[in-house]
Amino acid sequence: MSFMAVYLFYLYMIHTLFPENVRQPTELGADVMIIGAGIIIVSVLTRYKKWRWLWSEWLTTVDHKKIGVLYLISALAMLFRGGVDALMLRTNLALPNIQPIGANEYNEVFTTHGTIMIFFMAMPFIFALFNAVVPLMIGARDVAFPRLNAISYWLFAFGALLLNISFVLGGSPNAGWTAYAPFTERAFTPGVGENYYFMSLLIAGIGTTMTGINFLVTIIRMRAPGMTFMRMPLFVWTTLTTSALIIFAFPPLTVALALTLIDRLFHASFFTLGHGGMPMMYVNLFWLFGHPEVYIVVMPAFGIFSEVVATFSGKQLFGYTAMVLSVVAIMLFAYGTWVHHFFTMGAGPSVNVFFGLSTMLIAIPTGVKIFNWIFTMWGGRIRMTVAMLYQIAFIPTFAIGGATGVMFAVVPVDYQLHNGYFLIAHFHNVLIGGTLFGLLSGMHYWWPKMFGFSLNERLGKFAFWLFFIGFWITFTPQYMLGFEGMTRRLYTYPLGYGWHMLNVISTLGAFTMGAGFVVLVYDIVWSLFKMPRDATGDPWNGRTLEWALPSPVPEYNFARVPVVTSRDMFWWMKRHHATIADQLKPNDIRELELPKNSPVPFILGLGFFIFGFGMVFEWWLLAFLGLAIIIGSLIYTGFDYDEHKQVSAEEIRHIEQSLGRLQG
Amino acid sequence: MSLPVDPKVIPKPPVPLEFSVKAESIKITGFWMFLVSDMLIFASLFSVFAVFRSRIMAGPTPNQIFHYGSTLLETLLLLTSSFTVGMAIFAMRKSHAKVMMAWLVLTLVLGAGFVATEIHEFVTDVQHGITWHVSGFLSGFFVLVGTHGAHVSFGIAWAVTLLFQLSRRGLTPVTSRKLYTFSLYWHFLDIVWVFIFTFVYLFGKIT
Q1: What letter does residue A556 receive in the DSSP assignment?
Q2: Is residue A577 part of a domain?
């Protein structure tokens, strides 16, 4: 009964607060689910008296390992949301002329599917792994700016929240994940949906830029003694190049989003059709960000695979120097290819040829990497763990995705295939086969380091096969549909085009992948309760420094910062019987200064959320309130000089002793 | 072969206060990275302006709305303030806290003069119906120059909180690092203004 009362009150509030034109037909199911989930979470926290624990352990934390866990949980939740969107899309297209969801809802769902998967699934998943292991790999006690790191997380989280509430409050964005002007201008897309898109991406984008700065500085300035650039694990190298790409790619996106928002809310004339607006400028700015973004999400996967393949082949990575040079080359080339996303704009043959050639050129360093991974496996003692299975599945999948990408680099072919299902199949081929396989591989590989227990291998393999087979069943028919002329963003199609059977197969594949996700979640829950705790800290016989530490890692990471003398340092230590655990003496341990928890990041994020919500609905008073909270927390943090806490040597000795890592 | 001067004789300059603690020195590196991303924001806005500057439509031309007087005043104020903030850092390096604060206050006064002139220019434009709605050129102009002005205004607010911190805590590695990053930010805005002055105002006047 109380639930009904809450719901009726909620409906009443929506109808009184929101203007007529932004009210969508109420999506009853989604509303009920969201409110229900909220009530359950609140009551569980209250029942078990966990509010204080939640606040002091998680919401105010500045520890990079905990922030990594927060990112991972958010990313998996967003993978669920984006995946449900995908299944809704595939259901709508399963058979000709059926419309379980209508045209407008279809537009909303494919927009949120793309936006969430790129910005709110792939990015936080990547940051989860950066946070979890990069400082450990380079022998650092934390990232360069711990508080800024927490701010980045909360800006992402509140940005994601803003986008996700759009579905129930006023309508989701419906102009595609690229939000091309002039369609997103007020004249063509009234209502608040697009405002949600621009505001949430602006807020999350600020956080992402700061994460890029944070990890770049961490890697440049915080390496342990002896950890030279050419001794860094390859995942650290890809983190470095990814961070550099973020710093250079996100500003154009910020400008593109901000200018469109200024057009929409304050009637400027940037991308409008009248008054000398120039919509193609939006497309240029967007892809000036968007192409580097492709490498931002795939390069960390390259790094993960380089770690995984070396560990599970029991060999040093083949061609380390060539790998480093190729990631640097990809980073530089990434800025010279953005026009290939809109060859059909008609910039002329010379421009198109330049960008076509530069696109083909980028396949060369990528090919170098593929060969080096294969040569690393060559003659190695390969262990078929889940992480390694994803790696082995990745190589042919990504090679095919890359090859279809080179087809698009041929400009006349692009004119034929542009905006069709061949394109959809191509970019899912590289984004799922490259990024998602990489992230899942990394998740299985570093899970014991993050949580102190491994995931169940049998269940993990089951989920892997469902993902892998489901993936090919979904997207092979879509390549064919592209040749058959089916265009993207089509919400239904008539019988008799020959698209019928292929769509049925593709939908079946999508549901197979959905089943894979369910098994993955079951695997996580099962392992949480049933898997034995990992006492060694090194379940995979690893090679790099993070495996030298106990799992989960103590707050201060290294009781004594190691001196690095070799690439694959931990492997070297094990060969020379010189692991940190063997060597640590009580007198080596000194008092440490650690960053102190702070409420500022959470409150700052909340301020941005309130500000964003006010902007979306043009409630200026609310926007000013949010702005006041933002400015207030910035001033507060400026005057806060008490950023550190001391951890005594005695305390650290006690922790290390209980982990069995202290001599004498 | 002997060197003309024995290297041991040359006294090594002491490490400045703001670089003396590693954590603070790392923050300065981080601030440089922030400036890179901020520079790219301006680079994007400049590219937008470059595309839009000829898209005048029915609106006024650059030549009609730009005035030498206010532009020259703004330039003088901001360039002088860049000099005065440099003097503040110079005084900081010599540990003259009082002198440093005086130069900083003078910097803020000059900055405030710049912002006031710019606001006056914008308000006058709007009163004559010259708004960003009128043409693509005006949209690009107001947002590029306005973003710079907003940066200067933010810098002034930031430096006011710095003045309180400096007067309360004196010169420590932390406060000196904060002033040093502020000066980097201020010089950066000055450089951006040089480009705005050249590519927006002067080019606008000659075409």
Answers
A1: T
A2: yes
Residue A129 · residue A446 · CB < 8 Å? yes
- CA proximity to A146, closest of A241, A61, A80, A204: A61
Q: Tell me the average pLDDT across A322-327.
A: 96
Quick check: B43 and A251 CB within 8 A? yes
- Per the domain annotation, does A6 fall within a domain? no
Which domains does chain B show, CATH number per domain? Answer: 18-52+67-206 (1.20.120.80)
pLDDT classification of A577: cutoffs 50, 70, 90: confident
Q: Is the pLDDT of residue A520 over 60?
A: yes
* CATH number, domain with residue A183: 1.20.210.10
Look up residue A359 and give its two tokens.
């696109």
Is the pLDDT at A131 greater than 60? The verdict is yes
Segment A256-276, tens digit of pLDDT = 999 999 999 999 999 998 898
Name the interface residues of A facing B (CB cutoff 8 Å): 144-145, 148, 209, 212-214, 216-217, 220-222, 247-248, 250-252, 254-256, 259, 262, 266-270, 275-278, 281, 285, 288, 635, 638-639, 641
| b/e map A533-566, b = 16+ CB within 10 Å | ebeebbbbebbbbbbbbbbbbbbbbbbeebebee
- Per the CB < 8 A criterion, the answer to whether B111 and B158 are in contact is no
Query: In the 8-state DSSP scheme, what is residue A20?
Result: G
Distances (CA, A) of B74 to B102, B126, B162: 22, 19, 24
Q: Decide if B164 touches A, using CB distance below 8 A.
A: yes
